[in-house]
């Protein structure tokens, strides 16, 4: 008997499901509540349930797998071309079902609860870092309006503010000085919250063998290792390290016609946060590491710095996939052998 494929359009309260009964050929497009979806799938024989990889999709994937079904998560960009006429829940469910039938359609690996929690910690930390940067920049601007200039850099600038508080108090009106002192305390609280989140992230990294293996790659620290492992999920979801690099937007953008393909800048697809971490890690290797590696040193002789950084980030991502997919440990001078 053929397996039934369901196209499920999820939301907060309204859920639309499209499928074709394999025995009768009947086309069904029904609306459910959240509990009705769970009860319906719990009563059905094992099948394939296709979802759009959107908000709460990974929770639904884990729930549906627990009910005995196979889950296929699809990127919204791959579903949109199959939406016919006006966009509604019913047409979206049918488009998801249609996209899942296409041969070679790429899917997203469902994440575990721990992986989602780790990525949530990263998002919280990223927002706090952004807020701290805004607060420090505002502090610099307000003091500059009263003729007070500070050293470059967040740490050096804040240290100078604390050292010169008595001098600043004489220059700045009292009403503003009290507010500036409160802002300094607020920045300190943000620093404490960031450090607390980083400790939680490092704790997860220490208990995950995959994170420990990836962290041995030069340029990848606890933040990048945990974010990368949590984002990749199941390494089997990618056919190769090149496919992972393309997923992260670290490959050239292609534009071709008439049999001629032109390569541009990087595509910048996928998760910009992971791409930023990898590129910053690559820059750290280029400018901080004592042993940059023969490959990157030779590349830096003939290519611009930014190109080398992105190329090294691409290599780091591909190396990380290889370690995870083949359960290997990192070797400094490892040379891949081509199959004869």
From TrEMBL:
It comes from Pandoraea oxalativorans. GO terms for biological process: DNA transposition. NCBIfam families: transpos_IS110. InterPro entries: Transp_IS110-like_N, Transpos_IS110, Transposase_20. The lineage of its organism: Bacteria, Pseudomonadati, Pseudomonadota, Betaproteobacteria, Burkholderiales. This is Transposase. GO terms for molecular function: DNA binding; transposase activity. Keywords: Coiled coil, Plasmid. Residues 211-288 form the Transposase IS116/IS110/IS902 C-terminal domain. Pfam families: DEDD_Tnp_IS110 (PF01548), Transposase_20 (PF02371).
């Amino acid at each position: 008997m053929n397996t039934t494929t369901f196209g499920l359009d999820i939301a907060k309260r309204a859920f639309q499901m499209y499928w074709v009964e394999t025995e009768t050929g009947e086309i069904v497009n029904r609306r459910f509540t959240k509990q009705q979806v769970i009860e319906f799938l719990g009563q059905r024989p094992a099948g394939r349930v296709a979802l759009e990889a959107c908000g709460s999709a990974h929770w639904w994937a884990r729930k549906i797998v627990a009910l005995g079904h196979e889950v296929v998560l699809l990127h919204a960009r791959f579903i949109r071309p199959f939406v016919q006429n006006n966009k509604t829940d019913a047409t979206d469910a049918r488009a998801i079902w249609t996209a899942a039938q296409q041969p070679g359609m790429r899917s997203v690996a469902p994440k575990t609860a721990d992986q989602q929690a780790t990525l949530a910690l990263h998002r919280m930390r990223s927002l706090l870092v952004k807020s701290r940067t805004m607060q420090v920049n505002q502090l610099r601007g307000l003091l500059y309006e009263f003729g007070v200039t500070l050293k470059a850099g967040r740490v050096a600038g804040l240290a100078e503010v604390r050292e010169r508080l008595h001098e600043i108090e004489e220059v700045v009106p009292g009403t503003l000085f009290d507010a500036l002192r409160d802002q300094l305390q607020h920045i300190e609280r943000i620093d404490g919250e960031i450090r607390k989140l980083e400790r939680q992230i490092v704790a997860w990294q220490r208990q995950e063998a995959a994170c420990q293996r990836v962290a041995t790659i030069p340029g990848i620290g606890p933040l990048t290792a945990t974010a990368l492992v949590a984002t990749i999920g199941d390494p089997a979801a990618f056919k190769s390290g090149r496919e992972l690099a393309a997923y992260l937007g670290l490959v050239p953008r292609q534009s071709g016609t008439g049999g001629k393909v032109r390569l541009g800048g990087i595509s910048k697809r996928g998760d910009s946060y992971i791409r930023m971490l990898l590129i910053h890690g690559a820059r750290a290797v280029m400018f901080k590491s004592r042993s940059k590696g023969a490959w990157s040193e030779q590349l830096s002789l003939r290519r611009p710095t930014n190109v080398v950084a992105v190329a090294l980030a691409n290599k780091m991502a591909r190396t990380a996939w290889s370690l995870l997919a083949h359960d290997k440990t990192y070797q400094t001078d490892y040379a891949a052998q081509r199959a004869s």
